[in-house]
Write a structure and sequence with these properties.
- The protein has 171 residues and is of the alpha+beta class.
- The protein is 26% helix and 29% strand.
- The strands form two sheets. It has a four-stranded mixed sheet with strand order 5-2-1-7, with no helix packed on it.
- It is elongated and about 55 Å long.
Length: 171
């Protein structure tokens, strides 16, 4: 069975058009690369997340499309929403009751991707201590090591991940 046969078989059994999906994930070379940033909009009480694909390999329209989940944690409580994106740059608004301590794009790692986040040191520290997945805690620690600081980077003997009720396993 070749890719075209696979596409036809799955389309027939599901009733869904998979041409775009198969083109992105089976026929194109590469994978999505995203840059992300967020800001708090006090007036709207929303985390405003900006997602951009600087380049996307050999895709016919130059970027990946699909659904992306954005999650934010306010006082340890996760709020998430899945957004459809169809352009090279998208901005999503996630309504929240207060400014979040942590915001993540694709928090459950459903996408095979590269993601470059613009976050400050306090956001990376919170993520290193509270992110639900070890891969996110490691990424946060790596980001902290890259940031210029007068203090030494966190050691394995620090309190990261040891806060009561953090939900994180110590590194």
């Amino acid at each position: 069975m070749d890719t075209a046969d696979f596409e036809k078989t799955v389309e027939h059994s599901t009733g869904r058009d998979l041409h775009e999906f198969v083109g992105q994930w089976f026929r194109a070379v590469g994978h999505p690369v995203f840059t992300a940033s967020w800001r708090w909009d006090e007036g709207k009480k929303a985390a405003v997340v900006h997602l951009e694909q600087p380049y996307a390999g050999a895709l016919h329209h130059g970027f990946y499309t699909g659904n992306m989940t954005v999650a934010a944690w306010v006082k340890g409580v996760r709020t998430a929403r899945t957004f459809a994106f169809h352009r090279k740059q998208e901005t999503f608004e996630l309504p929240l009751r207060a400014r979040p301590q942590m915001v993540q794009v694709d928090p459950d790692h459903e996408w095979l991707k590269e993601l470059d986040w613009e976050k400050n040191a306090s956001e990376w520290k919170y993520e290193a201590a509270h992110a639900p997945y070890a891969v996110d805690r490691i990424r946060a620690l790596q980001a902290l090591l890259k940031q210029p600081s007068k203090q030494s980077p966190p050691s394995s003997q620090s309190n990261i991940g040891r806060e009561q009720g953090s939900g994180a396993t110590p590194l």
